[in-house]
């Protein structure tokens, strides 16, 4: 018995009559699968590239923020040191002024004599 249609063609005709889409042959299916896999790999590689780019940007921003934080910390330490030195300087000046006033009082007491109680404005 001579068949005018091969098995694949018969199936195609049957599905066409039933209103269904025609099945692909194994070769077509394999080709389509390979194309889809290649497209998925390309998309995956593009996503990886984008992730690397974003990671680099994030690292750059992190480095910039770290430098800013270090600069702020250095500024804070310098400010604390200057404040401490200024406080020490003020205390030293107060003590010197107090000692100088006491020296001047003592000098005036010596000049005016021990019995006189001159006005001390110092």
Automatic annotation (TrEMBL):
Entry superkingdom: Eukaryota
Protein name: Uncharacterized protein
Species in which this protein is naturally found: Polarella glacialis
């Amino acid at each position: 018995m001579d068949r005018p249609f091969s098995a694949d063609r018969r199936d195609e005709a049957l599905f066409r009559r039933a209103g269904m889409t025609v099945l692909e042959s194994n070769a077509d299916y394999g080709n389509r699968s390979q194309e889809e896999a290649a497209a998925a790999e390309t998309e995956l590689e593009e996503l990886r590239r984008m992730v690397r780019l974003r990671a680099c940007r994030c690292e750059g921003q992190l480095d910039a923020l770290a430098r800013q934080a270090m600069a702020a910390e250095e500024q804070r330490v310098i400010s604390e040191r200057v404040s401490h030195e200024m406080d020490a300087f003020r205390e030293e000046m107060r003590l010197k002024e107090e000692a100088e006033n006491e020296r001047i009082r003592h000098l005036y007491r010596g000049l005016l004599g021990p019995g006189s109680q001159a006005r001390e404005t110092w």
